[in-house]
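Contributing new records

If you add data, match the layout below exactly. Sequence lines come first and carry their own label; structure lines follow with theirs. Keep one chain per record. Anything else will be rejected by the validation script.
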Amino acid sequence: FFFLMIRRPPRSTQSRSSAASDVYKRQEYMGIIINTKPKMADTSVNWIMKFINSPVGPKTTHFWGPICNWFLVVQGFLERDRAPARISRNMQTVLVIYSSSFMRFAYQVKPRNWLLFSMHLMNVVVQGLSLIHIS
């Protein structure tokens, strides 16, 4: 229904102050239609704004979920010097299986969530090294 809300002006409207000129943000100069929408001059700012507003940007859970899950990787890294008797083989195995399955999910979901994929990849590596350390 949203496409019905934006209507083109009737062709009989010739005035520059019509609603159409305000909606479409254009001006006519010597018979040439000029787009008056401001453009971003700095490409780095444009790239940052694209990232912030992207489907996996910081405004979504697709960004903050993997950021919080990185603490699993950090904890696994901090346990690398822990005595093997104090590391749970079952928990390490579950974490490797969990991250392996969600690595596939992060790759298959649209848009691809590379932050989630990298977190799970590193978690498989760190927890796998803990399993080797236990053995």
